[in-house]
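pasting input
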Amino acid sequence: MYDVIIIGAGVSGAAAARELSRYQVKACVLEKEEDVCCGTSKANSAIAHAGYDAANGSLMAKLNVQGNKMMAQLSKDLDFEFIQNGSLVVCTEEENRPGLEALLERGIKNGVEGLRIVEREELVEMEPNISDEAVAALYAPTGGIVCPFNLNIALAENACANGVEFRFNTQVEEIERIQGGYRLKTNQGDVEAKCVVNAAGVFADEIHNMVSEKKITIIPRRGDYCLLDKTAGNHVKRTIFALPGKYGKGILVSPTVHGNLIVGPTAIDIQDKEGTNTTRAGLDEVITKCANTVKNVPLRQVITSFAGLRAHEEGHEFLIGELPDAPGFVDCAGIESPGLTSSPAIGCMVAEIIKGILDLKENPDFVGTRKGILNPETLSMEERNALIKEKPAYGNIICRCEMVTEGEILDAIHRPLGAKSLDGVKRRTRAGMGRCQAGFCSPRTMEILSRELSMDMMEITKSGGKSSFVVGTNKDQI
Amino acid sequence: MKAYDIVIIGGGPAGLAAAVSAKEKGVDSILILERDKELGGILNQCIHNGFGLHTFKEELTGPEYAARFIKQVLDLGIEYKLHTMVMDISHDKVVTAMNREEGMFTIQAKTVILAMGCRERSRGALNIPGYRPAGIYSAGTAQRLVNREGFMPGREVVILGSGDIGLIMARRMTFEGAKVKVVAELMPYSGGLKRNIVQCLDDYGIPLKLSHTVVEIRGKERLTGITIAEVDSKGKPIPGTEEDYDCDTLLLSVGLIPENELSRGAGVEMSPITSGPLVNESLETNIEGVFACGNVLHVHDLVDFVSEEAGAAGRNAAAFVMGERRTSQGREIKLNPIEGVRYTVPSVIHPDQMDDKLTVRFRVGNVYKNCYISVYFDDERISRRKRPVVAPGEMEEIKLEREKLLSYPDLKTITVKIEEA
Ligand SMILES: Cc1cc2nc3c(=O)[nH]c(=O)nc-3n(C[C@H](O)[C@H](O)[C@H](O)COP(=O)(O)OP(=O)(O)OC[C@H]3O[C@@H](n4cnc5c(N)ncnc54)[C@H](O)[C@@H]3O)c2cc1C
Ligand SMILES: Cc1cc2nc3c(=O)[nH]c(=O)nc-3n(C[C@H](O)[C@H](O)[C@H](O)COP(=O)(O)OP(=O)(O)OC[C@H]3O[C@@H](n4cnc5c(N)ncnc54)[C@H](O)[C@@H]3O)c2cc1C
């Protein structure tokens, strides 16, 4: 029997696992997909929100501000990309100025530091491409951008290095109460644990409702995005939000940590919890609405579009805690935005709760740091050549757009919780994320995966399951 | 730092032909840098017939055509490096490259010939909504998988875009045992060569639906189907015209983009129309001693023209190295593409530097029937060639003579346009 089972290897589950690994605990993460970071954590705005948005006094507000404050140090400890580029909430109608004031006040009450209102003149100086309609903005210098994949992956790898087990392709289908804990029935057999953490994202209501009489409902609220080429990445420096006004909630425009420009999201309530398909209407909304705050967004430079699902719970609040009618069962549900930002704090809170239940002792061997995949572009020419001499794979470029080497891909495959699919390689190294969208590198990456994992080419997938890339050999059916 | 007179970026047909002509003109210090495992470029995966009709007066496959140039490069003892990615070209022609054996290294070049070819537009650039399952490939990626590696990307295929690669792949997938259900093309005309439509679609009964596009993509893991719809004259899907197709594969042949990241990095000025460098009569860019040819300059349909253009680039680079170039007297004639003519290569001419005969290549923006390709020297029409049909899918050309240009000492602009009969 495990001490703790965590359901879901998104950023919430991974953060909880990492924080729990500070203690002497036998823990296991169960994930229905083939890899970490396959749910909402891979498809979002990737903003480290400052924390002025959530209602005063809410758990969401508290964890957001805490998470934002923890992010800089965590990004150093765990070696993932985080840039505190600051954010601006732009007001384009004079009569909405009170809304801006209210946001400022809410932010101050939430404990957000450095907030101030900037007037048009200063705003234009900060962001020359700001809309001609912009009258003023709330400036939050603590707002930032983060690599959502590497945040999630780094937390999971660090948990794994500190002894947490991970099981992939393992879907929890039923939960039974047993003496001293729970039995989880999965497609890969039963597993038992004293405590269960429900970090199942948009499916957290289904997991919750397996053990509790007080039912909850999570509505997938889809957000569509367009991602633009790196040539557009300098269009704005900060993250530009729209103050909610006559156009509704508004579309954000932001650079990403890798230098692309992201534009989105929409907010469309849907039924299908796997409905991550973009729609024409959604993409059109993104394209038209982004002009409300930023002018001349070079939309011809779109390189891809995608959608993510917010785990929206009616009360719009994080539901984190042990269930009164299910002792040892800890919810981590309703983790919609700012869930990514809050994740470091969510992890601490969940670990605190479990520690209280199981009376955990510190893990003296805990190592709180992790090295990410080496990016040779950060090296000097001499260092790079020394590396290539030792490991010639670092001299072989596989992804021409992002200039990713074979060495990085080998590292991604062979490190703990390594990549098993093209998407796995892509999230870890960016191979295939550039302007040609893997047209060039996918056959090459497939060959590497096949060789390194001794898998047949037919077994190589985009993202596990039935997502194989090639289905046979020439003329095999004639 | 090592130094070469001519460094050629890319060992495809353009790079090879440029190397051969430069060497034949008398330059010995030439280096070709190629990132792939062999010379020959995209031709290595074009195993179909139809190359070399102009150059060799016989029908060769892509690899056979490439082999003829590769043999010349070997016979002439021209140096080349494979598995070598060029990472950067500086404004002063320092080329940075990398491979497994030598690591990252720099070369000082006297001249650089850009011959990097082009890449395919991806699904993302089209912003087609829907899921993002496996089973969606650019046609060239599928071509590489099938022709070089022997793998079938799928069994039931829909192709979006009627560019030549898409047409060729419709036939190839059929040969290899797949069912190609339909080719949808956004424009009211095909972007490919007429002969490819006949030989690759018509001969196999594959329908081509013009003015159609993909409006939905289904399947969470692997593609299960798509929906196509007819589009109006602005390219917007017309509601009610949707048709569903079950398929496990969608091939995209929706355009090629010259691969000019390196050129931009060096400060080469680009044409917004071709996405390739702006060049003069010598195929030289705004940076002195940096030349461009082949698909990196503008997308070609026929490799014969690539070889011809690249031969000129190689000769001009050699002339530059050998100090043979007449210095420009400052007289510059602008080419002015209008009324149906989208661009010209070159875009300016220095008559004192041009060869006796100069080929100007261009594409038209629409299908024109029974029209004239007209050339004006300033306001005077000096030629008019009747054409039964011109189309965006086929590159056009005019020839200019040096003598003639010199006899117009005040000539400022040469206008090329389509005139309807
Ligand atoms: C459009 C959009 C924009 C956003 N923008 C931001 C932002 O800018 N900043 C920010 O801070 N936050 C943002 N968020 C929110 C943030 O992305 C989420 O809060 C966070 O990623 C949630 O992580 P999670 O681990 O709770 O869920 P997920 O990442 O969805 O992880 C849940 C995991 O559980 C697994 N699972 C589910 N059911 C089972 C089962 N039965 N058995 C086993 N495994 C199971 C899933 O496969 C999945 O991997 C945004 C969200 C969206 C949708
Ligand atoms: C599918 C297809 C079908 C065709 N069918 C026909 C046909 O039937 N008949 C016909 O006549 N023509 C045909 N063509 C056209 C003809 O093949 C091309 O026009 C020709 O190959 C272009 O030559 P290129 O040298 O400019 O480019 P490429 O052949 O693309 O060569 C460019 C080379 O540069 C290398 N390179 C690029 N960047 C770098 C870098 N940074 N460092 C190092 N090396 C680099 C590439 O690896 C490549 O080898 C076809 C083309 C395609 C794609």
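fyi Chain A is about 30% helix and 25% strand.
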